[in-house]
Write a structure and sequence with these properties.
Layout: E1 7-13, H1 19-27, H2 35-40, E2 47-52, E3 55-59, H3 67-74, E4 79-85, H4 92-103, E5 108-114, H5 121-135, E6 145-147, H6 156-169, E7 180-182, E8 185-189, E9 193-199, E10 204-206, E11 211-214, E12 218-220, E13 222-227, E14 230-231, E15 234-236, E16 240-245, E17 258-260, E18 270-277, E19 288-294, E20 297-305, E21 316-323, E22 334-339, E23 345-353, H7 360-372, H8 378-384, H9 393-400, H10 404-410, E24 416-418, E25 425-427, H11 429-449, E26 456-457, H12 458-465, H13 469-481, E27 486-488, E28 491-493, H14 503-519, H15 526-533, H16 537-549, E29 553-555, E30 561-563, H17 564-580, E31 583-584, H18 586-593, H19 597-609, E32 614-616, E33 619-621
Parallel strand pairs: 1-3, 1-4, 4-5, 5-6
Antiparallel strand pairs: 2-3, 7-17, 8-9, 9-16, 10-15, 11-12, 11-17, 13-14, 13-16, 18-21, 18-23, 19-20, 19-22, 20-21, 22-23, 24-25, 26-28, 27-28, 29-30, 31-33, 32-33
């Protein structure tokens, strides 16, 4: 039985096979509430009655003109009750409704042969044989078949008993961890105002909870909640619910919209699907217009094929549905596909993804791969495909269609959790191995192209692996801990990497360092040194960087380098100065170095930058006061 103890049973079957009469025989309730229904003698909209305090019956229309209302009625049920009239037998809508129940993933089915008072027993046996043949080879093979008459009440109590037994064995729906209610009716009630009804297909709702209307994402304010005809403090998974809304009028709401926990349900315009076409359906070519029924919504769409050629009757294929209007859906939702004209059911399937790549080439690849992965492996596959831009717990939950807490408890044990405890990045071991190998490959290639550089910076690596900046910062630190890389400041290199100068460059660096040391505090600009040493400017710039990295030279700015020993003399002089004086001036540094302002200002700026002095106005003081 469902988690809440509530079970919803949806009636299905051909028009005039006695669904409404049977509901009345079982419950005493006439579900044809519209005047037009009374006048025409047929159900055109969904109706509801309670078999017991824990079992709701949903009566749906059988006429082909109202199939979309039928789909809305059975979109949130645990058990299907298929009616076949004894005098007609299996008919067109019988088969169509059975397909719809199957495509929507309704796990259990009962069959009632109605109007048994109109035929002989031998004929009934033939009808039952046809029904068993219809169910043969489907997931509903072996379902109970009960013979009933709403007029004579024959078999009604037997049917009630079977339905109660089936309800006791009904499996609960998967709870996504957040509230979700597809709206199947909207009306106004005097003294209350706007009312919407539906079946809770996920989570729970308490008076005072914050919810939103989808797809428009408008805040919904509740005056009250009812279930089974009475006011309640809250409703949960499986319950029929009526919500009294205070801030939206009947004109602002419509069947097919949803009430949900804010931010939990996507409203895409394109969805990737695993589509199954009926054997009797026509072939579907690329860009063909179709009708999509999902939840209680119906939307026009075009089907885009990710493989060459049309989808053939009776086959399954990955495809993309471009929706005319946004619809509230999540991964795992089931849908019905109907032809645009004439309107008939041609297939159905399950939503694979609601967040597709931008480029059609990538969309085709991704949809094809998802459709080929077994449902049990799809979560790990989705995580692994993120490569260098992994999901966080929160982003994966949103993509997968679960709450964060449910996602936290359902992630496979082997998945690595990286970084922040409350919202870690998630990677599979193969994904981590592949990313590590790719980063080492990128860094190795950088060494080949830039042999005199200490290593690649984070942004260079990020662009090459197409990674997330914040994640990569954390992952690079982990690679250093695991000795896959070594870090020098903000540069990353392979552990065995060491700069090897050519003989000519080693000689050039020695000359550069010796010249700078000889010039003391008044070194020539780099471009002048290049001319003096007869070394091309580009190469000398590289040698300056290498000498700086090796600790042989100190860079004051882009044009001035001084020798490390020269800087050590200055630092010693500054330290001695502060023993006797509180302040340091430009003139003091001129006296210490014997230089002009051209050099003293860059020297002081270096001292400020490295924390040896603190500038206060035109003077410097010791940083520690």
């Amino acid at each position: 039985m469902s988690d809440s103890g509530q079970v919803v049973i949806g009636l299905a079957g051909h028009i005039d096979h006695g669904k409404t009469a049977l509901v009345q025989a079982l419950t005493g309730v006439d579900t044809d509430t519209h005047a037009e229904e009374k006048q025409r003698g047929m159900t055109i909209d969904i109706g509801f009655a309670f078999l017991t305090d824990s079992i709701t019956l949903v009566d749906v229309p059988g006429h082909d003109r109202f199939i979309k209302n039928m789909v809305r009625g059975v979109a949130g049920i645990h058990i299907g009750l298929l009616l076949v009239a004894a005098d007609d037998g299996v008919m067109t809508q019988t088969r169509e409704h059975l397909h719809i129940l199957s495509y929507l993933g309704i796990p259990r089915l009962c069959v009632a042969i109605s109007k048994v008072d109109l035929v002989e027993a031998d004929w009934l046996d033939l009808v039952e044989d046809d029904i068993r043949s219809l169910l043969s080879g489907t997931s509903y093979e072996g379902s109970p078949i009960i013979r009933v008459s709403a007029i004579t009440k024959e078999g009604v109590e037997d049917l009630r008993e079977v339905l109660e037994q089936e309800a006791a064995q009904a499996s609960p729906w998967e709870d996504r961890g957040f509230f979700r209610l597809p709206i199947d009716r909207v009306f106004s009630l005097k003294g209350f105002g706007t009312i919407v009804t539906g079946t809770v297909i996920s989570g729970s709702l308490q008076q005072g909870d914050t919810v939103e209307l989808l797809p428009g994402r408008q805040e919904v304010k509740l005056r009250g909640i009812q279930s089974h005809g009475g006011s309640v403090a809250g409703v949960r998974l499986g319950d029929r619910a009526a919500l009294n809304i205070t801030n939206l009028s009947v004109q602002e709401l419509r069947r097919g919209e949803q009430i949900a926990t804010p931010g939990s349900v996507a409203t895409p315009r394109s969805i990737a699907v695993d589509l199954h076409l009926l054997a009797e359906a026509p072939s579907l070519p690329h860009n063909h217009p179709v009708r999509v029924n999902v939840g209680t919504a119906e939307v026009m769409a075009r089907i885009r094929l990710v493989a060459k050629g049309p989808i053939r009757p009776g086959t399954r294929a990955g495809a993309v549905l471009d929706l005319q209007d946004p619809v509230p859906v999540i991964r795992g939702d089931r849908f019905i596909l109907r032809s645009f004209s004439p309107v008939t059911t041609i297939g159905g399937g399950i939503i694979l993804d609601v967040d597709l790549p931008r480029r059609w080439r990538d969309v085709k690849r991704w949809t094809t791969q998802l459709a080929a992965v077994s449902p049990a492996d799809q979560l790990s596959y989705l995580i692994e495909e993120q490569a260098g831009d992994p999901f966080t717990l929160k982003t994966l939950a949103a993509r997968w269609g679960w709450s964060v807490e449910k996602m936290r408890n359902q992630i496979p044990q082997e998945v690595l959790r990286i970084g922040r405890d409350e919202n870690p990045w998630l990677m599979t071991p193969p994904q981590a191995e592949a990313l590590t190998a790719r980063i080492r490959e990128v860094v190795g290639a950088y060494h080949q192209s830039q042999p005199y550089s200490r290593g690649a910076n984070r942004e260079y690596i990020r662009q090459k692996v197409n990674g997330d900046e914040r994640f990569l910062e954390s992952w690079l630190r982990k690679l250093v801990e695991q000795q896959h890389l070594q870090a020098q400041g903000e540069m990353w290199s392979l552990p065995d990497f060491d700069i090897q100068l050519s003989d000519a460059d080693a000689d050039g660096m020695d000359k550069l360092v010796a010249t700078v040391e000889a010039q003391g505090f008044q070194t020539e600009y780099i471009e002048v040194l290049a001319e003096r040493l007869d070394i091309p400017m580009e190469r000398l710039t590289t040698l300056c960087v290498l000498a700086e990295n090796q600790g042989r030279l100190v860079r004051l700015n882009q044009r001035i380098m001084i020798h490390t020993h020269t800087m050590e003399r200055l630092l010693g002089a500054v330290e001695r100065h502060f023993r006797e004086h509180r302040e340091l001036t430009v003139g003091d540094v001129k006296d210490m170095t014997g230089t002009t302002r051209k050099y003293t200002v860059p020297l002081l700026e270096y001292l400020d930058r490295t924390g040896h002095t603190l500038r206060v106005g035109d003077k410097r003081v010791r940083p520690d006061g």
